Amino acid sequence: MSSVTLPPDYSPSEDEDFMNPVMLEFFRRKLVEWKNDILRGASETLQQLQQQELQQPDLADRATMETDSALELRTRDRERKLISKIDSALRRIEEGEYGYCEETGEPINIKRLEARPIATLSLEAQERHERHEKTHKDED
């Protein structure tokens, strides 16, 4: 798929064929770049945590440092889950399923995909899903 040339300043549009090779390459690159940014951040976090272990600040500084570290690790855990969703989206691109609602099979709005390239549901299906969750949550 990487043999597709992406025009400079390309932005997907409703006027072109949905999920044509150029559009797929646009989203593939967007997903890969997002994943690489997350991995870079995780590597920096690991380096920072290793450096902090070498320092022996006073108790108040150490408590602050441990709180900051715990928050950073929770953030990285969420990002680890996000990487799994990015990998799934990349797999859907390879399988020709990317951009289509997994519930209805209808195309997902391009603006939605630009904002959330890991989306698997159309906006309508997502709203139905959230209403259903809220209704069942209220029953618990």
What does this structure look like?
With 140 residues, the chain is mainly alpha-helical. It folds into 2 domains: 18-98, Four Helix Bundle (Hemerythrin (Met), subunit A) (Up-down Bundle); 99-140, no CATH class. Helices cover 67% and strands 0% of the residues. The chain contains 4 helices and no strands. Helix 1 (21-54) packs antiparallel against helix 2 (59-95). The longest helix has 37 residues, at 59-95. The mean pLDDT is 86.
Low-confidence runs (pLDDT<50, min 5 residues)?
Answer: none
Share of helix among residues? Answer: 55-70%
| CATH fold descriptor of the largest domain | Four Helix Bundle (Hemerythrin (Met), subunit A)
- Give the helix tally: 4
- Rg, rounded, reads 20 Å
Q: Note the run of SSEs as H and E.
A: HHHH
Termini Cα gap? 47 Å
- Work out the number of β strands: 0
Strand content: under 5%
CATH top level assignment of the largest domain: Mainly Alpha
Structural class of the helix and strand makeup? mainly alpha
The CATH homologous superfamily of the largest domain corresponds to DksA, coiled-coil domain
Q: Can you tell me the number of structural domains?
A: 2
Which sheet architecture does the biggest sheet show? none
